[in-house]
Amino acid sequence: MCGIVGYTGESRAQEVLIEGLSRLEYRGYDSAGVAIREDDGIHVVCRKGKVAELAHTLGHFSLTGTCGIGHTRWATHGKPSEVNAHPHTSCDGNIAIVHNGIIENFAELRDELALRGHVFSSETDSEVVAHLVEDNYHGDLVEAVRLSTEALVGSYGIAVVCAQEPDVIVATRKDSPIVVGYSAGDAGSAAMRGSFVASDIIAMLDATRDVVVLADGQIAKLTPNGIEYFDEQGRPCEVTHTHIDWDLDLAEKGGYPDFMMKEIHEQPRVIRDTLAGRMVGGRLEIDEFDLSPEELDLTDRVYVIACGTSYHAGLIAKNLIEAWARIPCEVEVASEFRYRNPIITPTTVVVAVSQSGETADTLAAIRDARVKGAKVFGITNVLGSPVARESDGVIYTKANKEIAVASTKSFIGQVVSLTLLAMLFAQAKGKLTTAQVRLLFRELADTADQVERILSDTDDIREAALACKDAKSALFIGRGIGSAVSYEGALKLKEISYLHAEAYAAGEMKHGPIALIDEGFPVIAIATKSPTYDKVVSNLQESRARGATIIAIATEGDEDIKNYADHVIYIPKVRDAFSAITATVPLQLLARFVALERGCDVDQPRNLAKSVTVE
Ligand code: M6R
After folding, report:
1. Which residue's alpha carbon is nearest to atom 11 within ligand 1?
2. For the packed helices 141-150 and 127-136, what is the interaxial angle rounded to 10 degrees?
3. E strands within 373-426?
4. Helix residue spans in 24-79 (DSSP H)
5. DSSP H or E run through 349
6. Lowest-confidence pick of 66-80, 495-509, 578-592
7. Model confidence over 166-195: pLDDT tens digits?
8. Residue 407 Cα, ligand 1 centroid: separation in angstroms?
9. Running DSSP on this structure, what letter comes out for residue 236?
10. What's the chain's Rg over C-alpha atoms?
11. List of residues 6+ apart from 529 with CB closer than 8 A
C-alpha cells in the first residue's frame, strides 16, 4: 500500500526520492508526491497516477534541495487526487509530512485543530499530523513530532520535514514499518552520503545495507551526518542495527519481462527451499511450530485464517489436515473470523497465513484469537513482520521478496508449508506412520521438478489464453482440492486481467452458474486424475452442451479428456494431495497471458496493493 521515502545528504533529493519511490511501486498506489526543502522554504509537488508522471512534472522545476520526503499513496480516506496525495503541509507551509497507516481519531483531532484556526485542504486522515506538528513546534522538531504522536490513535509510520530545520528529517512509527539508514558514501561507487528513511528496506538498499528498523514509539532524527534515536519520552536511546545481505538483484526482473513471470519461474526453488532441512533422522520436524508432541496430539480443532490468495492456500490445507490428521479444520476469511465469536478452547490451534505479514484483517484476527486463548502460529514470507511478531510461533515460507502484486510464488510456499503442517499433525497423532510421512515428503519434493516441466513448455497455455482474452466473464470449476485451486485461478485472472471470473465447486454448476453459459463462454476446469475425475468430466459435458469453450487442466496421458475439452493443458501426474501445486502453476500463467493480451500491467494491477494494511 502506501510507501515512504526520505533523504537528507549532499546529493539532490529529487533524484533520490524518485528512485526510492520507484522501488516501492510494487506495493500498489494511486498517487505520489515529494516535499523538498529549498532555500525559500518547502516545495511540494504531487501527481495522481504513476511515479513516472511525478518525475516528469518535477523535470519542469529546478529543485536543487538536498533534503526531502516522498510518498506513494493508496487511497483510504478521500479519493485518489493531487489534493489528497502526500506530502501534506501545515497552514504556514513550514511543516510537511508523509504518513502510512490510519489515524483513527482524525475526525476529533481535525475538529479540535479547526477550532484553533487550522484550515484543512485535503480529505485525508493524515493531514492532521502536519497541523499537530505545526502546533507543537517550538524550535525542536523531534519534540514536536513526539508530542504530536501522543495525540494520535491508530497506526502510523511518519516522516516530517520543517522549514526551520533545513537538513533534518524526523521519523517515527507505531504498527507501521519505518526503516532508517546512514551511508558515509563511497567515492568509487554510486553510493551517496547521507541519511535515508523508508517504509520498506528495498527503497534504500542502493544506498546502504546497515539499517535500523525502528521499534514502535522510537523516533529517528536524520541529518546529513548521521542519525540520532530517541524513545517515547524523548530520551536518547539505543537501537539494533541490522545488516541486509540479500541482493537488490532479487528485486530486479532477472531477465524476465515482468516480476510476475520471474516469480512464477522461481516456484521450483521455493518448493525446494521450503522443504530443506525439514526431514531430520527420517522424521518430519518443524521446530518453529513449537507445540510439544502431547500438545500436537491433543489438538482437536484447527482454524486457518487468511485473506485472498493466502485464504486459498488455507482451503487446500483443510483437505490435507482433515484427510491425514483427522482434525476438524475450518478455513476463515480473517475479516469475518473475529466478528463471529468462533469456538476456541485451549486445544484449538490457529494458523494465520499472510505473505506480507502486514495484512490488517489477519493481524486483527490473530489478536482476537490470542485473547480468546488460542495458540496462534503465523505462516509468512516477511521476516520480523507484524504477523511474525504477534504470533506464538512463525514458519517462514522461503519465497523471498515477492514484488508483483498478484501472489504466485508465495502461494506455493504457503501450500508447501501447510502441507508439512498437515503431515506433522498426522505424524504426532499417529495417523500416518513415519514411513508414510517419508513417502509423502519425497513425493512433495518431486513437485519441484514437475513444476519445472510445466514451466518449460507453455505453448498450450498461451493458446488457451487466446480463447479467453475477449470474453466478458469466465468460470473456474473443480472438485475437492481442485475446487480450492479453481478459486485461486479465478482470483488470479480477475486481479490482473480485469476479466470477471467466478469459481465454483463443480457440483454446484447445476445449482445456478450453468445459467451463465452460452456460446464461447470459457469454462476452466481442474480435471486432473482424482477420485472425482468422472464427476468433473460430467460437468464438462453439461457445459459443452450449452456452448462453453472448455479449457481443461488434465493429467499427462489422459487422452480421453480431449473428447470433452477445446483446450487441454497437461500437467505431470502427482498424488491428488499435491495437485494444488502443479495445477495452480498453469492457471497463474493463463492469467498472465490473458492479462498481457488485454494490455494490462501484470505487476501492478489497478486498485490493488501488495500489502493491505487497512481493515
Ligand atoms: O499478504 P497477505 O498474504 O496477507 O495478503 C492477502 C491478500 O491481500 C493477497 O493474497 C491478495 O489477494 C493478492 N493480491 C493475491 O494475489
Report:
1. 308
2. 120
3. 375-380, 393-396
4. 51-58
5. strand 348-354
6. 66-80
7. 999 999 999 888 999 999 887 655 568 999
8. 6
9. B
10. 26
11. 555, 558, 573, 576
Helices and strands (DSSP H and E) totals, the chain: 18, 26
Label residue 402 left, alpha or beta by phi (over 0 means left) and psi (-120 to 50 means alpha).
beta
Residues in the chain: 615
The answer on pLDDT for 333 being more than 70 is yes
407 lines ligand 1 (CB under 6 A): yes
Atom of ligand 1 nearest to the CA of 362: 4
204 pLDDT above the threshold of 90: no
Are 241 and 585 in contact by the 8 Å Cβ rule? The answer is no
Taken in order of first residue, the domains within the chain and their CATH numbers are: 3-245 (3.60.20.10), 259-455 (3.40.50.10490), 459-597 (3.40.50.10490)
Q: Grid coordinates in use for 481?
A: 482440492
The DSSP line for 482-527 is HHHHHHHHHHHHHHHH--EEEEEEGGGGGGTGGGG--TT-EEEEEE
3-class secondary-structure state, position 244: coil
Cell of 189: 561507487
Q: Is 545 helix (H, G, I), strand (E, B) or coil?
A: coil
Which residues are known to be catalytic?
A: 2, 610
Per DSSP, the three-state class of 135 is helix
Q: Which helix (H) or strand (E) segment is 474 a member of?
A: strand 473-478
Q: Which amino acid is at 360?
A: A
pLDDT value of residue 509? 87
Nearest CA to ligand 1 atom 16: 406
Burial of 506 (0-12, 13-18, 19+ CB in 10 A): buried
Extract the C-alpha cell encoding 19: 528512485
Atom of ligand 1 nearest to the CA of 361: 4
How far CA 174 is from CA of 137, 218, 335, 435, in Å, comes to 21, 9, 22, 48
pTM score of the predicted model: 0.74
CB 299 within 8 A of CB 347: yes
Peptide bond into 513 cis (omega under 30): no
Specify the pairing of strand 348-354 against strand 301-306: parallel
Residue 520 contacts residue 549 (beta carbons within 8 Å) = yes
Summarize the confidence of residues 322-342 as an average pLDDT: 93
C-beta of 611 in contact with ligand 1 (< 6 A)? yes
Q: How far is CA 170 from CA 57, 59, 349, 602, in A?
A: 26, 27, 41, 36
User: Residue 19's closest CA among 248, 214, 262?
Assistant: 248
The C-alpha atoms of residue 337 and residue 211 are separated, in whole angstroms, by: 36
* Closest to 427 in 3D by CA, of 418, 417, 414, 437: 437
Q: Kindly report the CA angle at 603 between 598 and 607, in degrees rounded to 5?
A: 80
Sheet hosting strand 210-213, strand order edge to edge: 41-48, 31-38, 67-73, 3-9, 193-198, 179-184, 210-213, 241-243
